Amino acid sequence: MKKNYSAILFDLDGTLTDSSPGILGCVRYALDKMGRKIPEETLLKGFLGPPLADSLTKYCGMTLEEAEKAAWIYRIAYDDKCLTENSLFDGIYELLEQLKAAGKLLGVATTKPLVTADRILEHFGIKKFFDAVCGAAPDGSGGEKAGIIRNAMKELGISDKGQVLMIGDRLYDINGAKTVGIDSAGVLFGYSSPGELEEAGADYLFGSPQEIAEFILS
Asked: Where are the beta strands (DSSP E) in the chain?
């Protein structure tokens, strides 16, 4: 039996916005500045979702110190591209509008630095829909997904885990939700690889923002 969720949490990159051109361009720039080989495209796409430092150590073999330096270079380059090489997925604005009109509590739970997430939400005119926006610190620390989800629930004033649905496009969103003990949904229009969300154990899968609206509001 489908639950009547009162609070909906969204990931940002790959769920609300298509930010891949700016992110991957800045990853390439940072790696070039560090004198590192740029991974092939399939591996490079692994940077879409998890904390940047984690990807730099995993895919590029960097030490923590090197990853922090590369992340700093990345963040400076991304300061403008987060707006200019980014766009809302079709139907997202209407989805948020519908959910808000229905009285749902809405939150953003992203591993992106909070200050950057705020700029993006303001730029696209959707911050007004959210009752809580939670992300990492400016230096990228505190970017563990489960912790960010918990912070968002706290800001929303929600303690009943059965009332919350986390929506994201990568396994990190699904795993974070499972760690916290809330239901999760994966969006198939984001950056996941084939079968990734199913293997992670998403409770629901959606092919479009319209499907999300129909599911939650039906």
From this structure: 7-10, 17-18, 87-88, 105-113, 132-136, 164-168, 183-187, 204-206
Give me Rg for the CA atoms of the chain.
Answer: 17
In the chain the domains, ranked by start, together with CATH numbers, are 7-18+87-217 (3.40.50.1000), 20-84 (1.10.150.240)
Give the pTM: 0.91
- Among residues 102, 105, 65, 133, which one has the least CA distance to residue 214? 102
Sheet holding 7-10, edge to edge: 132-136, 105-113, 7-10, 164-168, 183-187, 204-206
Residue in 164, 162, 150, 82 with CA at minimum distance from that of residue 121: 82
Digit-coded pLDDT (tens) for 138-158: 877 888 999 999 999 999 999
Name the region of 81 (left: φ>0; alpha: ψ -120 to 50; beta: rest).
alpha
**Known catalytic residues?**
11
pLDDT in tens, 54-81: 899 999 999 999 999 999 999 999 887 8
DSSP label at 13?
A: B
Angle between helices 20-33 and 64-84 (to 10 degrees): 140
Q: Are strands 105-113 and 7-10 parallel, antiparallel or unpaired?
A: parallel
| Separation CA 156–CA 35 (nearest Å) | 44
Contact 120, 17 (CB under 8 A): yes
Using CA atoms, how far apart are residues 58 and 67, in angstroms rounded to an integer?
10
What is the secondary structure of 78-95 as a DSSP string? HHHHHHHT-EEPTTHHHH
